[in-house]
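Consider a concrete sample entry:
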Amino acid sequence: MPKFINETMGMVSEADLLATGFMVSRPNDPLEGLFTDQVTDNLVAEWYTMASEYQIPQMAQFHAFDTQAQKSDRAPIDEHNIEKGLIKVKRNTSELLRQLLKRGVRVEETLYDFVMDDNAALSDQVITRAKVARAELLATGQVTIKENGLNEVIDYGVPTNHKNLTLDVGDGAATDVLTQLQNIVDAAAAEGVTITGMVCPKSLLTKLRKNANLQLAINGSSQAGILVRNQALLDFLSEEYGISQVITDDLTYAEPLQASSTKRPTVKAHRYFPNDKVTFFGTQNGMRLGAGLWGTPPEVEIAQFMQVGGSSESPYVYVSQWAETDPAVLWTKASALYMPVLFAPQSLFIASIAETAKAA
């Protein structure tokens, strides 16, 4: 039967705190396959190493036996201000326990489970912010940090002409959608990028299935006006354009809860990936697009100087607890240093979705 440590109600063991922050992958998140998660002691150095490693492989040259080896230059890597990626949030654990005790919960094991569930939910808030940053990178080519007095934009160097594209899926588009898709694939190929996949809202696939030109190309003239089957569309995109990985992301998250005049918190939901964007990508040599780097937050370094309970190893999310005497409060905090890395900035081609109706 678990017991609270230090004779402090709500203070859990270091082993349990460690377990709370060690799992950041979400099996139902469609973007998980594009980015790995990695813990590092130095975000800047790891970013440099990984971005350099995943560039298009450079070729060495043949030499005569009596000539010197050609000097190899490293690929230039832009430095990014990623030390701003501190994500943290805390909760009053004492308040939770008071609420439970008032409702008749007295068994210590049950109280312990409630506290652990609350800690896991706190850690999940940090993970959610990381996933939001990752999705924003895919949808815009940058990460915006505009909260809690910060106003930073992390620019990944995606070329401007890669971010201002338009895909008009309406029957009244000036250029038919088949030609638009081919133009994007050709533009990428001209820069040495082979488009292999796309990220989009599911609604885009529905609009493509309704497009008259696509219906004609896939179903034939005898079935014009008939909705294209979803699998037929996916097969067509793969065979005609090499887009074999079609990822739809319609997941949502909520902003931090805020009390309203009714004293109940209001929930403001947002999409991870916008409903009006589609991102085409080319993974270098079948590799992933990038990685999520998890660094060591300041709480880890300062823990030795404070009466703080925390995990002694390096999880993705660091969960710590400490008690205040006046007022008597036990706090639990989840924190992480996080920033997504994009291996090859030129590998993204981002388009706004338009739907021009056919003139009457």
About this structure: Confidence is low (pLDDT under 50) at residues 304-308.
